[in-house]
Amino acid sequence: MDQEIIFDVVRESLWVAVAISTPILGVALLTGIAIGLFQALTSIQEMTLTFVPKMIAMLLTFWVSMTFMTNSLVSFFRDTILRLIAEN
């Protein structure tokens, strides 16, 4: 297996990882900003106020985007990994 093929597979797998993690990280970022703004406006400094809503939002996003994540991983495996195995 050539070095170029390995680098291409690693590069493509990193892009798949970024695409899969983007929804969850985006929701965590937006939820954190909203809660931080709420805490700054009300002067409430409670640690559970930042943790619990962010975890709930992330779990809901994971549940909603699970189909997208699964399809992305399966298509990457089928189109890239299995193709490389079959060629060698």
Q: What can you tell me about this protein's structure?
A:
The chain is mainly α and 88 residues long. It has one domain (3-83). Helices cover 91% and strands 0% of the residues. It has helices spanning 3-42, 47-64, 66-87. Helix 1 packs across helix 2 and helix 1 (3-42) runs antiparallel to helix 3 (66-87). The longest helix has 40 residues, at 3-42. The chain is elongated. The mean pLDDT is 93. It is found in: Cell membrane; Bacterial flagellum basal body. It is a multi-pass membrane protein. Role in flagellar biosynthesis. Pfam families: Bac_export_3 (PF01313). The chain crosses the membrane at residues 12-35, 55-77.
- Percent range for β-strand residues: under 5%
Helix content: over 70%
Strand tally is 0
Individual helix count: 3
Can you write the helix and strand succession as a string?
A: HHH
User: Terminal Cα separation, in Å?
Assistant: 8 Å
How many structural domains are formed by the residues?
1
Shape annotation: elongated
Based on CA atoms alone, the radius of gyration comes out at: 19 Å
Largest sheet: none
Which regions have little confidence, pLDDT < 50, spanning 5+ residues?
none
Mean pLDDT: 93
Structural class: mainly alpha
GO cellular component, one term: plasma membrane
Protein name: Flagellar biosynthetic protein FliQ
InterPro entries: Bac_export_3, FliQ
Subcellular location: Cell membrane; Bacterial flagellum basal body
